Amino acid sequence: MESQAHNTVGASPCEAELQELMEQIDIMVSNKKLDWERKMRALETRLDLRDQELANAQTCLDQKGQEVGLLRQKLDSLEKCNLAMTQNYEGQLQTLKAQFSKLTNSFEKLRLHQTKQNKFRGKELPHPKEETPFELSNLNQKLEEFRAKSREWDKQEILYQTHLVSLDAQQKILSEKCNQFQKQAQSYQTQLNGKKQCSEEDSSSEIPRLICEPDSSCETCERDEFIIEKLKSAVSEIALSRNKLQDENQKLLQELKMYQRQCQAMEAGLSEVKSELQSRDNLLRMIEMERLQLHRELLKIGECQNAQENKKRLESSYSPSIKEPERKRKELFSVTSDQPNHEKELNKR
């Protein structure tokens, strides 16, 4: 009995210690479990945030791709418009050159014809001769002005052609930059997909480990921090790439605006050239009208000269026939006046 009492007395403190130790172990396990659950929730929220940031970056990349497509369409439309404008301008210039050559040929023919007529006429008509050289000098002056304007227009044509060549070069540079931008966007897309897969694999591999190894809390915390650092670096890289894409997009937009301003300036220059061409056509019409008027005046002068010559010839041919009847009339008058005197003398006898 004494030995049993002694055993019960010795066992009761051990059981109390064991029970106290078990309670402490339960408290530690519950604390670790709570800490682990809190870390798991924080990790899940971070992963959700990273997924959201990756989705936002993906949408930004899609928008940039659409903007690149719109820029490419605008560049193609501008290139087509420039080609059409240059072809139209060259066609108008060729027709204008042909008209100018025809006008110069007709003017040279008219001047040669006028010089020949002046040689044949001599000095009989001084006033028309004084008027026609004045008209010819005016026409020569207008023709010289027209030639000077045509030389200026040729210079402007050369300048416009060089400007078009420079614009074509700028267009090629812009298209190359667009291609580079698309390649960079594709590479960023592949990087995003790879990083997303890596993050998903890391998260899927880390979560079961945390579930299977609740006791190794320090290692899981380090791994979680490593994953978080990885995700932070990936997000920072995505942010940098997004900033680069935004900078490239801003540069492209600025270059496109500059190109649009250059196209507007070129359109204004072409409108000025069109107005000059219109004025040139009006000048050609005026010169043609003056040439026709001069030709009519020359025909009138020739007709007047022919009429005066015919009149002189008729006067010279009719003058002897008019003088002879007058002489006969005078003789008859003298005979009739002498006849009464003769009768008086006969009566006296």
Tell me the span between the first and last alpha carbons: 244 Å
Overall 3D shape: rod-shaped
Quickly count the helices. 3
DSSP strand content: under 5%
Description:
The protein has 349 residues and is mainly α. It has one domain (9-309): Ferritin. The protein is built from three helices and no strands. It has helices spanning 2-121, 126-212, 217-348. It is rod-shaped.
Quick take:
The protein has helices at residues 2-121, 126-212, 217-348.
What are the key terms here?
3 helices; 97% helix; Ferritin
Helix and strand arrangement:
Blueprint: H1 2-121, H2 126-212, H3 217-348
Biased composition (Basic and acidic residues): 323-332, 340-349
Protein name: Deuterosome assembly protein 1
Domain CEP63/Deup1 N-terminal: 12-281
